[in-house]
Design goal:
By secondary structure, the protein is an alpha+beta fold. It has four helices and ten strands; from the N terminus they run βββααβββαβαβββ. β5 and β6 form a beta hairpin. The longest helix is centred in the first third of the chain and has 18 residues.
Length: 179
């Protein structure tokens, strides 16, 4: 279960605090996105320079300013260490407006259920605050861990929506698709 502080863009779970990114998170954005393991299935997301992380932060911040939501920084309660990022962004899939669920975590946070907990919280938030848009997750067929996160967040396979993305075939997981 989660709750939103609209003024601060914060979500809470039993173990995690999710907050809107700030410029102070650029180093963590860089560290997580330059790790070859975190971008193994999405190599086009890999960063090689700190200024790229700054640009990524600015895109995330611009979306927050336009939409009032975006990607959150995920931390354990009481810790300043960024475990990763989880959130939503509007996009189009086969001509349909959707929200894309994103999650990427430092390898040190893998296997502890943090991504699933954060993704489920963001999914719940999106269903309450942006209910008119279907929610999707684009997952590589070989990325079993990401498939599990999408399923634990309440999304189901929607094979009819699969498409080729930047890094190969995207399997689509979805919730709240129109009939």
């Amino acid at each position: 279960m989660s709750d939103l502080n609209p003024e601060g863009g914060q979500l809470q779970t039993a173990r995690l605090s999710l907050r809107r990114p700030t410029e102070a998170d650029i180093d963590a954005i860089f560290a997580i996105h330059r790790d070859p393991e975190t971008c193994l299935h999405n190599p086009s997301d890999a960063l090689t320079r700190l200024d790229e992380a700054g640009e990524l932060y600015r895109r995330w911040n611009d979306q927050w300013q336009r939409c009032g939501y975006g990607y959150w920084v995920v931390r354990r309660h009481g810790s300043a260490l960024q475990l990763g990022f989880c959130g939503i962004k509007p996009m189009e899939l086969h001509g349909m407006k959707v929200l894309n669920l994103f999650y990427r975590f430092a390898t040190s946070a893998w296997g502890q259920g943090f991504a699933s907990e954060a993704a489920a919280t963001v999914t719940t938030w999106a269903s309450r605050h942006v209910p008119d848009l279907p929610l999707i997750a684009r997952v590589r067929p070989a990325n079993i861990a990401s498939q599990r996160v999408a399923a634990r967040a309440g999304l189901t396979r929607a094979e009819h929506l699969d498409e080729t993305g930047y890094d190969g075939l995207d399997w689509i997981y979805a919730a709240r698709l129109p009939n």
